[in-house]
Amino acid sequence: MPKPKKKKSSWAPERGEEAMVGGIMEGSPDAVGVAVIRLDCGCRKMAAVDKNGDPASEIIMYRAKAESICDRCKKDNGAFHRVTEQFIAWGTPRPPAPDRERIIAKVLGTTSSASH
Ligand SMILES: [Zn+2]
Fold first, then answer.
1. What is the domain partition of the chain in residue ranges?
2. 8 Å CB contact between 46 and 36
3. Cα-to-centroid distance, 85 and ligand 1 (Å)
């Protein structure tokens, strides 16, 4: 099978995120992807999701280049209104598109990138 061409996507995991995603995937055999939630303070929330869009791991919070998450996150646990970006980093093989859309809708509560 030919490798899919790299499409310009609306998101790309940063290097630190990729490492975290890899670690979470490894520790979550049922996971098909990892939900990545970026907060306005720079902290990240991540959780593995299974093929049904259910959580496949605990929610993990971390802050790049820091030993712990910031004080704000400690207080509000990464409140939803501070989310700047959210997406799912899919494992390989990626689930089929209809599954991905279903999972995104369930996990992120939005349809994937609004169709214009
Ligand atoms: Zn924070």
1. 15-108
2. yes
3. 14
